Input
Amino acid sequence: MQFIADMHTHTIASSHAYSTVTENAAEAERKGIKIMAMTDHCVKMPDSPHEWHFYNQKTLPRKIGDVFLVRGVEANFIDHNGNLDIPADMYPALDWIIACYHHPACMPGTMTQHTESYIKAIENLRVNCLGHTDSPDFAYDIREVCVACREYGKAMELNVARIRDPDNPLHSEAYKFYRHLLSVCAEEGTNIVVDSDSHFWNTIGAFDRAAELIEEVKFPQELVLSLDERRMKDFITRHRQRNIFE
Ligand SMILES: [Zn+2]
Ligand SMILES: [Zn+2]
Output
């Protein structure tokens, strides 16, 4: 299974990550990844870069070696109303937006609140994907959210950092969660994106556990955007409302 994209990666701009864009891109190229998004934490996380980091990604080249660089962000929910910590004037600087619940930025609410908040984020034209939705503290109605995702042409994330280590009980629990998420996505026809959420270069594009899970549940490969360069580019272009690949 050859993955062509890794759309959730961190760099030293988030202080609890330890590699540079250049190191990440070199590893991406080694793994056959063609499209890589830099998605450092947006402003509400304690370790996030200064907001200028996001406005200024335009200074990066579009390609390092054979890897196309997508200027992204891992945005934080700041309430249960679908609001994210992206200032309005930052949107034009971003090609790719993952929306995530993180403890320091938002305290858990009820299942209904998380579900409604996820759906509101999906309705936000510029949000591409919901990230690592496996946290039990932020449980939600999986089917309702997957249906909304399909209707708005968005994607759910299979976050490999959460399932990488089979000997870690938390990862085994998350693996079970993703097995269920993928079964609902398959039934509802919802796209998924496979991401490393890498905090060091060595895990960029290291997707063996995801391949294992996709095979185990016989997940339809046509719903995995990360396996098809053309479809991934079209997906990015549609929500970016501009073709960044030309
Ligand atoms: Zn995160
Ligand atoms: Zn992350």
In short: The mean pLDDT is 97. The chain has one domain: 5-240.
